[in-house]
């Protein structure tokens, strides 16, 4: 098995645990749940790394600055 990205392994492991904990109950809206759990800390870390410079953070993330701004507002990371 080729080496996997540690973040991918972490997500896979924890998602599998989540699904196992459901004990047969059908999951609901897993895609959006994972995005919400991962996206906010991603934005927080990148914004910190970019010293709160949205243009630079957008560049790091490969996003349009307006898209980043919208996401920062969505997660209440800016007013």
Going by helix content, strand content and strand pairing, the class is mainly alpha
- The level of helicity is 55-70%
CATH topology of the domain at 30-79: Arc Repressor Mutant, subunit A
Strand content: under 5%
Rg, Å, rounded: 16 Å
pLDDT < 50 runs, ≥5 residues:
none
Count of extended strands: 0
Per DSSP, the total helix count is 4
CATH superfamily of the domain at 30-79: Homeodomain-like
SSE sequence, one letter per element: HHHH
Whole-Å distance between the termini?
45 Å
Description:
With 79 residues, the chain is mostly helical. The chain has a domain at 30-79: Orthogonal Bundle (Arc Repressor Mutant, subunit A). The chain has 4 helices and no strands. It has helices at residues 6-21, 30-49, 54-61, 65-74. The chain starts with 5 loop residues before the first helix and ends in a 5-residue tail after the last helix. The mean pLDDT is 95.
Question: What's the short story on this structure?
Answer:
By secondary structure, this protein is mainly alpha-helical.
Key features?
mainly alpha, 79 residues, 4 helices, Arc Repressor Mutant, subunit A, single chain
Write the layout of secondary structure elements.
Layout: H1 6-21, H2 30-49, H3 54-61, H4 65-74
